[in-house]
Amino acid sequence: MTADPRLGTDDVERLLAGVEQADAEARRAWPGTPQTRQPVQVYYVSADRVGGSTVADAGAVAARLLDAHAGDGPTLLAACGIDGLPDDVADRVRDRVGAKLADQPLEDLRVDFEDGYLGRDQATEAADATRTGGAVAELLARDDAPPFVGLRVKSFTDGLARRSVATLDRFLAALLDGTGGALPAGFAVTFPKIVAVAHVAAFVDVLDALETAYGLAAGSLRFEAQIETTPSVLGPDGRVALRDLRDAGAGRMCAAHVGVYDYSAGLGLPPAEQRLDHPALDAARHLLQISFAGSEVRLSDGSTNAVPADDGEAEVRRVWQRHSGDVRHSLRHGFVQGWDLHPSHLVSRYTTVYADLLRDLDDVLDRLAAWHGGSSAAGVMDEPATVRAMLHQVQRAVDCGAIDPSEVARRIGATVEPRPAVR
Length: 423
What we know:
The protein has an eight-stranded parallel beta sheet. α3 crosses α13 and α5 (87-103) crosses α13. By secondary structure, it is of the alpha/beta class. The chain is 51% helix and 9% strand.
């Protein structure tokens, strides 16, 4: 007996009309998470203090503080308030942090012309824009620049939009003059204090005009939206505004960064409660995650404003504990990048990130070795999705220097190289 279908071809086509279009629209809205490298930190330096030795100086200060106050792994982890790791893993963390500070102390450098650069007149800012653009070009020429680099311009909100554009223009002129017209692949501009979608649209027009003026490829100037005002989260109609900012970005918005202190102050929180781990900031972070999960927009947490009053052990460890706690809070919430404002933060940043990555990495490597060998690790039958997640963890560890690629190759029999810097 043959069972004939009751729905004809025309019926099925009518019923499924619009499905393919809906799929295409969903792919445009959620194109997938980038598989390129993301830095674990971004270091903000006021433009007046940026020069050809900025990166080396920050690394040298951080290394000096590490050697002075944490001679071994257990001491370092205790100074950062991290527990639960065996001494041998702690020593590996300490060794890798020392190597990182010597080899690549900064992963992302941001020349700051906004809140970190207050009180300068327009002429001074113009001179600093030209000088710092040249300094970044010098770092690139010497191969001393971090993998990622950029600048933060002034907000369009404060009546300084023209000054903001002029600074970006001058910075680019000096940078491109020093690089022979080549824009670094890891370059981005941070756009702060957004209060209107129209400001983002205007900034995109500026970037488009600058590309034409300097002969840059269309779409090569990317920007990070700094989410530090309530209107950048909820619009005047009560709708979540974050996706509108992305849409106005016209494909140029590569990241969204949480602005801890402006956002918490804007909510009316008292100074003592203006902190990265306040529940009000968690609410904003979760909205960012919901809005941008599965999209090309990466997320970064903000900064810790605690810095050492001196180089004494008590002060340095106070800051390490506070900063490390904030980094752990970010990691628990899925934010793998954050801001650093002082060389001491480099020690606690890399210590915390490396401890998080290395905590179970030996087990991950054993399971990957078994997978690549066609078997299963003892007591575990991993699915392909789990293997992909483990490979992602290993890739992140290699990218940021928590583990050397040669050790990965030796342990799992496969090559995992650091990914290049691409916005």
